[in-house]
């Protein structure tokens, strides 16, 4: 039986495991892929105190830090269910392989994934011009031309943000109009280097083999195909939390599927805490996920010393 069982081995889970283990309590981490989204990242320049690193390098450092403590790491294991309410007050975590783990507290940190356009060229040019995070990759496109795909709040926020850095932003929205809040749309309309194209369906990412050179979109009204020359494409059509497996668990999820947490990282279920991109905490960033993971572990420890 674990005192703290962490589900997910990204930045949030790694931080939670280190903080829990440092209390001398029985700590485990179960992860489908230790490292999480960081493994898919090339340059990271905003993890404070590390001016520049690469995703796989940071992922290895996270794992090394966790392994410096007595933590039971169960990698390449997918969790499929969380159960509570048994007589012994323990929380049960059921794995895809049929095994069940029991713990006095659980920290959920299963992260999220960006929704993709699923068009030719997108996969090939990821990290070579196709980007998903303006806070992360915006500065790489200083003085260049970029497109933002998606006219919801995150797309319009991204376009406003990028307009201050890049030369020119083209925002493409599938629908006939933008869906972002009016105040954001007003701000967007005031910017001289942003143009908005509605009823536009991106159909292809173009490149020269090394990097992005443009995109093709279909005008959904006139049915014509049009090409835009540019250096970067920010896809902002949704961030999906990895929480489907929690739907029947009793842990409260927001309408977007994020785990609802309070300021201490507690969920609606006693003894169950959560941290990182899978939660309602705003701004999905590595440094935020690690901070939240540390906080959730301290909250779990606090909970443990108050229960039998
Ligand atoms: P994740 O990193 O998503 O980790 C989730 C963990 O849970 C993984 O181990 C996963 O395998 C596991 N998991 C999921 N489901 C299950 C399950 N059912 N059972 C068991 N395990 C499960 N942020 C920055 O701050 N700077 C950047 O430069 C930056 N660049 C980025 C570039 C890209 C391409 C991407 C995709 C993201 C980038 N981010 C960046 C965002 C950053 O990676 C995330 O905010 C951060 O990784 C979130 O950490 P997390 O621990 O909450 O989740």
From TrEMBL:
Domain FAD/NAD(P)-binding: 2-293
Coiled coil: none
UniProt binding sites for NAD(+): 145-159
Disulfide bridge map: 133-136
Keywords, ordered alphabetically: Disulfide bond, FAD, Flavoprotein, NAD, NADP, Oxidoreductase, Redox-active center
Gene Ontology MF terms in the entry: flavin adenine dinucleotide binding; NAD binding; NADH-dependent peroxiredoxin activity; oxidoreductase activity, acting on a sulfur group of donors, NAD(P) as acceptor
Protein name: Alkyl hydroperoxide reductase subunit F
Name of the gene encoding the protein in the UniProt record: ahpF
Residues of the full protein shown: 211 to 518 of 518
């Amino acid at each position: 039986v674990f005192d703290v069982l962490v589900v997910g081995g990204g930045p949030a889970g790694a931080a939670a495991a280190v903080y829990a283990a440092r209390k001398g309590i029985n700590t485990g981490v179960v992860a489908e892929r230790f490292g999480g989204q960081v493994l898919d990242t090339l340059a990271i320049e905003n993890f404070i105190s590390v001016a520049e690193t690469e995703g796989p390098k940071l992922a290895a450092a996270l794992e090394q830090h966790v392994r410096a403590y007595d933590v039971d790491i169960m990698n390449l294991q997918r969790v499929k269910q969380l159960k509570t309410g048994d007589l012994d007050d323990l929380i049960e975590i059921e794995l895809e392989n049929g095994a069940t783990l029991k713990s006095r507290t659980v920290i959920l940190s299963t992260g999220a994934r960006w929704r993709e356009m699923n068009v030719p060229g997108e996969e090939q040019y990821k990290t070579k011009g196709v980007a998903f995070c303006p806070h992360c990759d915006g500065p790489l496109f200083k003085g260049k031309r970029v497109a933002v795909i998606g006219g919801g709040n995150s797309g319009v926020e991204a376009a406003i943000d990028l307009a201050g850095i890049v030369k020119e932003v083209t925002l493409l929205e599938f629908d006939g109009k933008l869906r972002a809040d009016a105040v954001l749309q007003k701000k967007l309309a005031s910017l001289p280097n942003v143009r908005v194209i509605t009823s536009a369906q991106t159909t292809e990412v173009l490149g020269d083999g090394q990097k992005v050179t443009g995109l093709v979109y279909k005008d959904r009204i006139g049915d014509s195909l049009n090409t835009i020359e540019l250096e970067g494409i920010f896809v902002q059509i949704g961030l999906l939390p990895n929480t489907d497996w929690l739907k029947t668990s009793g842990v409260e999820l927001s309408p977007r599927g994020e785990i609802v947490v309070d300021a201490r990282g507690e969920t609606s279920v006693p003894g169950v805490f959560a941290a990182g991109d899978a939660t309602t905490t705003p701004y999905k960033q590595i440094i935020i996920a690690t901070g939240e993971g540390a906080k959730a572990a301290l909250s779990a420890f606090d909970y443990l010393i108050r229960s039998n």
